[in-house]
Amino acid sequence: MGLASGAKLGPYEILAPLGAGGMGEVYRARDTRLGREVAIKVLPESFSSDPGRLHRFEQEARTVAALKHPNILAVFDIGQHNGSPFLVSELLEGESLCAVLDRGAVPQRKAIEYGVQIAQGLAAAHDHGIVHRDLKPENVFVTKDGRIKLLDFGLAKLIQASDGVAAEVNGITLTGSPTAAGVVMGTAGYMAPEQVRGAPVDPRTDIFAFGAVLYEMLSGQAAFRRDTPAESMAAVLKEDPQELSKPSHPVSPALDRIVRRCLEKNPEERFQSAKDLSFALASLSGSDTSAASRAALKPRNKPPVLWVAMLLALAAVAVGAWLLARRPAPTAERLQFPILVTGEGEVSHMALSADGKMLAFVSPDEKSAISMLYVQRVGSPSATVLAGTEGASFPFWSPDDAYVAFFAHGKLLKLAVSGGPPQTLASVTTARGGSWGSKGVIIYAPVASDVLWRVNADGSGAAPLTASIAGKQENSHRWPVFLPDGDHFLFWAGNFQRAKDDRVSGIYITSLAAREKTLVTLTHFSLGYAAGNLLYVDDKGQLVAAPFDVSRATAGEPRVIATSVGVDPTVFWAAFTAADNGTVVYNENSQVVSSALTWLDRTGKVLGRTGHSGVMANPSISPDGDHVALDIADLNANNIDIWMVSLKGSADTRLTFDPASEVLGVWSRDGNAIAYTYLGSDAVSLRLKKTTGREKEKTLFAPKDVFGEIFANSWTLDDKQILCTMVPAGVNVVRGSELVLIPASGGEPVSFLLTKDSVSSGQISPDGKWVAYASNESGAWEIYVTTFPDAAGKWQVSRDGGNEPRWRGDSQEIFYVGPTGLLMAVPVDAKYAFSTGPPAPLFQTYRRAPLASTDLFTYDVSKDGKRFLVNRHVKPDHLVPLTIVLHATANPPN
The whole model's pTM is what? Predict the structure, then answer.
């Protein structure tokens, strides 16, 4: 319609024409209200009668107005003049990228700078569910100060339905001359193959166009420009651009791989999000693009689980783009990327699939804070929580990456990534890792103090595996890792009471025949295997990779992958995982759960905290209610001691001082002594110490086998005996643990409750007539009650699973923790005969899967049953980012 200088469109005064295109005419104008110059885009009169064009114009206005980002043209207003709609936006000073490219290629550093900004603008649009669909140099503006602005979202369509699920974008994309008004739904030479075919588009469509633009910036030539649009489209579908780097115009290999990855014909093989693309480009912006580069995300107020998903998506794609490159570089470059997360999105146990395309990890649920298992596909913008994985720990993959195996609620389970309920494979108590071999055999450590077991992938044939090769000084085999042949495997063997003894603890190799084992190297922590290399933590705390010769069972000279990696000395686990292709993910922080004692009432209302936060377990309130006995870990000293923490504001007292660890303190009825488990250098033992602290501790009983365990549960009313859980050596799954009575003066145990299954946590009632305990005899852990002292009769108290029984002070109520962390209360009537009412839920305890074999209780209750002292997870002040290392096992550059 052509507007003259001085014409008025509402409060806007036209100053001069700026240009015209297929979707409208652009004018320089003045906003008379705010006294600023703006740009106004007016839909031509000839288009006003076309509903389709009007719709696209209005869509552009709505979508762009929502995209408040420094790299996207800002929209201020929308209106109509004489029936024609117009759009008011910021006025830009500079030129289009097309004009820049008319003068030739852009210097590499400048191309990276522009590329980062373009990708960041696209990421903002994609976050709003918007695909540009017509990214090309004409729609990229370079301001005078070097800032990039994306223009013309007139072809954009929403890619998200109202429920947030990705929706297909319908309609065939047609192309013609870039200047043919009204028929262009994309531009030949910049469209992705799926766009040419008329298939649904998504953010990866823009990434292909980005690759074409970046290629053009670096080479000065359009990637797919041919004589006609049809030939250009055919080139997009079938041809690859010419080599980007030439002797006369070199381009760094890393940058070349980014461009090639963007231009993959298959969307699955491109960068999967613009965020990842921006991140990868930013890593090259330093002075040395071949050196290890680091970048971090600016924290945003995202839901915690989404932060975990973002962490994994960015991490996986940033490295996966190079890792899976169709044209690998002649020499592998070691690249390292830390990703910062905020909120509650801790990632603890994690496992890379064999092909490096999937990452399984354990993280707290956003609402309940219960540990759940998540799976993140390389390149996916979101993580998937796997239903039925509450309390999961130590995941590992099947060789075909179709299943994830994990431990939860006393079971080894497998779960199809495609969906379905978990399938139980075997029983465990305190599992310490597993590995799934290529011959359909799974090796796992069912108990902290036991040998490795094997089971077929269908759950049949569970049996001990490494018992015959266990050394006399070893009391634990754990952290198995299958080698590619599916027969040989590596594992950690040692004495977890004295893992610092270099003569005992280390990595060994054996086979499924388990006739002998060979020491490979000494270490105190879990291990990995990737691309022919053994990965482990050395005595300096460094994560190292050493070439490994399977036939000779020897490791070569180790190379440092990371100077610091998180470890958990309570279970001898190192926070890293590796894929067969050499990619390594590690955490500088072990993500050991820090907690604090928190008082809650029966409704779950927080009444206050006691003491300081730390790595602690097993709270036990003294009979007078003045103190709580507590296991507190010193991670630096690799030691756990029992403390008596005051509940009345007085000073706390350390009870045990031995260099070995002491755990699970239980008060005598008179409060004068505490029985506890001593994890000594030779074996586990039950000890007793007066609470005055002035007398030397006394050993009451020690299992004869180094694999045996003994844990105090509760005292008899006369304080003459201690009810304990005893775990025999090497028979944990066959016969299970039992409840025994040990004299407080010392001596041999007397069996109280022995079944073919496992029992634990026996709690003698305050009136001395009953014992509440946990047992897995039904296949799931439940709470039962029997008589004391004769164990006559049995009543099941819990429903749908339970653990951690505690009595109210008058013996008329039992409390326990359900499988999802819900604290339950069961009324007890034992006036004439024992009976219980239905369990009633109280509140969520935020139960996590215990790491140590001795983490048996997460709470205790006051005598009146009105207040609960819960050992609750404490959100860390800040999260240390995960680090992903590409080609971690490759030879370093000269």
Answer: 0.56
